[in-house]
Specification:
globular, 4 helices, eleven-stranded antiparallel sheet, 225 residues, alpha+beta
Amino acid sequence: MLRATVAAVLCSVLAACGGGHPSLADTRAAQARSVARDAGLPPAVQDLLADAATSATRTFTVRYKLAVPGSTTITQDPPRRRIDLVLGTGATVVTRSTITNADGTFACTRTTGAWTCKKTATRATEFGPLALGDIEQTTADLAAARKSYTFRVESRTVARTRARCLVTELKPGQPPDPTRGERGVLCISPDGVPLVIQGGKTTITATTYMPKVTDAAFRLPVKAS
């Protein structure tokens, strides 16, 4: 947990400790803002994308409701990470979890109440279009949409969290982009974590969000086989 010490305050003011090197979050934000600025996106959109690009460096727990019956929960305390995908209802529920902790990465599955886990080489990946590797593509898509869509940034409350939202709406007389539809929404928490992603046939909405984790989340439910 972050402690409000004199050293911590100085570090935050200087952006980093030890020679003034920027933090990973600062680097990601600067990269995303530069790409968005070069693409000609409005300053408010640049700021939102810059903050969103830092989400992979943050500590949080967020649960999303999916368009299909089920949910996804992401728990992150870098480099520890866990993604739980729950699909189905009642007796047909299946849970698939990818857990990265100090011992490596594990793929776990629960069916009919019983867990199984095995070690894997595949890490729990960054979330959706806001991973650093995808920020240029996300920005390029938004830049391409400027001719047909209007942009605005507004505030909303999502999962009891004050969020900033980028809303894109189709201009009158313009044909909709099949992947974007007539309206798209991207909402992020104050730490840049995606809380709402809507566009075309995609609908993901956070139901709970906390800027913290529990250590128990990164323990395997059973011993890996």
